[in-house]
Design goal:
Layout: E1 2-3, E2 10-11, H1 30-41, H2 47-56, H3 58-67, H4 76-94, H5 110-120, H6 122-140, H7 148-176, H8 181-201, H9 205-238
Antiparallel strand pairs: 1-2
Helix pairs in contact: 2-3, 3-7, 3-8, 4-6, 4-7, 5-9, 6-7, 6-9, 7-8, 8-9
């Protein structure tokens, strides 16, 4: 007679009838490692399918995730972290952003250190930035009755695609030495604005304008907040 180590329920099958764990652990081998990687990256949920859907019909894909089926797309937090990691790796290898960041004493300041942290942690930084953007979207599209967290999920998906757009142009620039980083930024920006409007009502032209402004204001407020915090810390240190 065997008992579950978690809940002490008597086990008569290959798994605990009460809490579910298997009675025997899978041996750690190549198959196990691959299954763990697939689970973390959500490959079993279709990351390429998620990318395709968000590129072709972003608004409908996100609405279906929110209200119909949450198993077809990669989980939004995982998605933005993975896509941001892809961009960070490409940027780190080719040093794409180095030429756009002021040198000398800037990096020694708290503001500079915060900017470097953002550069090295785009996954978390994008989520934080999404909070600011979501606040303006909630304000501009309040009649649609989506709550703040649903808007944040929308941003995780569309900003994740934005990171992949950055990744593509950065990779092309790194390999072929053609200045495309700023063009990639514009493409990512317009995609994000389009996807937000598409989520609400793509038939209304004013929604594209509102999503454009909401995104811009969110990014600006995020940057202002980072700079303010950095300057405040430097001021406190000097006192």
């Amino acid at each position: 007679m065997a008992f579950c180590e978690n809940c002490n329920t008597e086990i008569t099958q290959n798994y605990c009838p009460n809490c579910g764990p298997s009675t025997s652990l899978q041996r750690i081998d190549r198959k196990y490692i691959w299954s763990e990687i697939s689970s973390v990256l959500n490959l079993d949920k279709g990351i390429f399918y998620t990318i395709k859907e968000l590129c072709i019909r972003p608004g409908k894909a996100v609405r279906e995730f929110l209200f119909d089926d949450r198993n077809r797309l990669v989980k939004p937090i995982i998605f933005i972290v993975i896509t941001s990691l892809v961009y960070s790796m490409i940027n780190h290898y080719f040093q794409i952003e180095e030429q756009y960041i002021p040198q000398n004493n800037f990096k020694k300041s708290t503001v500079g250190k915060l900017m470097i942290w953002i550069q090295e942690n785009y996954g978390y930084a994008n989520i934080l930035m999404g909070v600011f953007i979501a606040s303006f979207i909630k304000l501009f599209f309040k009649k649609y009755q989506y709550n703040f967290y649903e808007i944040l999920i929308l941003l995780c998906f569309v900003m994740g695609i934005g990171m992949l757009i950055f990744s593509f142009f950065s990779l092309f620039q790194g390999v072929f030495h053609v200045e495309l980083f700023q063009i990639g930024g514009l493409v990512a920006f317009f995609y994000t604005s389009f996807a937000i409007a598409d989520f609400y009502d793509k038939s209304k032209v004013k929604n594209y304008f509102k999503s454009f402004i909401a995104y811009i204001l969110g990014v600006i407020l995020f940057i202002i907040t980072v700079v303010f915090i950095g300057l405040l810390i430097d001021l406190i240190i000097k006192l």
